[in-house]
Design goal:
Layout (H helix, E strand, L loop, with lengths): L7 E4 L9 H15 L4 E4 L11 H13 L6 E2 L14 H13 L3 E4 L3 H6 L6 H4 L11 H9 L5 E4 L5 E6 L3 E6 H4 L2 E4 L7 H11 L4 E5 L3 H13 L6 E5 L2 E2 L15 H7 L2 H11 L27 E2 L2
Parallel strand pairs: 1-2, 2-3, 9-10, 11-12
Antiparallel strand pairs: 4-5, 5-8, 6-7
Helix pairs in contact: 8-9
Bound molecules: zinc ion.
Zinc ion (ZN) binds next to loops.
């Protein structure tokens, strides 16, 4: 408790659907992690992909946090060109991109659209990020030919043969050689910056030093630490959390309609929702409670490491 009064955590929702119980659990843990240290929360809207995200959903998610009492201290206010929405940060990402380009750290990739799109979806990016791509080794002439034929490249960053080690606040020690996941896309062919670059830069730029998120993102962590350090920053402490899964073991998603915030708040009070969640997360006895009521005594060691099946 109170070990780090300067803790800055974040809510970083992607406004591509209605918030569900899994999103609420992640937000609650991020909030408790910061608040139990006397720290603060920043709200950032991760709306990089214009085809999947909407301002309307961002507003709805922010209202959802507020109605649950998960209040934040700074960040997104839904102002025109609000710099806490990733869709308004393209100029900043372009500056970073220019720096990397000057260092010869990036190259154009002319692979198919499917591979490129994978880069903007953090949960699918790993399998496809470097699959079979030989674009790093194209000659200038070959690149010119492809450009002449109208091919628009995505941009990849060169992953070095380097081991990144970190200690996750919940799951312990990890070590990964960046060359195992390979080069990855930081800018799509349509000009939209990819998740890994945006998130790494934003956490650094917004002073976030505690990142709490689902454990499906552990596999992105080494790359993000490396990117932040390449950009001259200090990586945050990462704390990954177990996922909430449906009975068939798949991660809860927007498809689980009865667990979305609209349905939940129709059936339960806020206190009942947190009572239920706190028992799933093993951080309290399950009695109805406010989020505030869970701060005292919050301890990561109580939170399970295995995914949590919602019955
Ligand atoms: Zn390629």
């Amino acid at each position: 408790m109170n070990e780090n009064k300067n803790a800055i955590g974040r809510f970083a929702p992607s406004p591509s659907g209605i918030m569900h119980l899994g999103n609420i659990a992640s937000a609650l843990l991020a909030w408790l992690d910061a608040r139990s240290r006397g720290g603060k929360i920043v709200l950032r809207i991760e709306d990089l992909d214009p085809d999947r995200c909407s301002n309307e959903l961002a507003v709805k998610i922010a209202e959802g946090f507020k109605s649950l009492g998960l209040v934040w201290d700074s960040g997104w206010e839904n102002k025109p060109s609000d710099k806490y929405a990733q869709s308004n940060r393209t100029e900043l990402y372009n500056d970073i991109f220019d720096i990397l380009q000057k260092r010869d750290a990036v190259y154009p990739c002319y692979c198919t659209r499917n591979q490129r799109l994978a880069a903007s979806a953090p949960h699918q990016a790993d399998k496809l990020s470097d699959f079979g791509c030989k674009c790093r080794y194209l000659s200038k002439l070959e690149r010119r030919e492809l450009e002449k034929a109208g091919r628009k490249p995505a941009w990849k960053i060169k992953a070095p043969d380097k081991i990144v080690s970190f200690t996750d606040g919940h799951y312990g020690k990890f070590s990964e050689n960046l060359s195992d996941t390979g080069d990855f896309i930081i800018k799509r062919s349509d000009g939209v910056f990819a998740y890994q670059l945006a998130v790494s830069f934003d956490d650094m730029d917004m002073g976030v030093n505690r990142v709490v998120r689902g454990r499906d993102l552990i596999s992105s962590t080494a790359r993000q630490i490396w990117l932040i350090e390449e950009l001259g920053g200090k990586a945050p402490q990462y704390c990954h959390a177990p996922l909430l899964t449906a009975l068939d073991k798949r991660k809860l998603s927007k498809r689980d309609g009865d667990l979305n915030i609209d349905e939940l708040t129709k059936r339960f009070s806020t206190e009942e929702i947190f009572g239920l969640l706190s028992s799933y997360l093993n951080i309290s006895d399950g009695k109805p409670t406010s989020a505030e009521g869970l701060i005292e005594g919050f301890d990561w060691s109580k939170v399970p490491k295995e995914d949590i099946v919602i019955k």
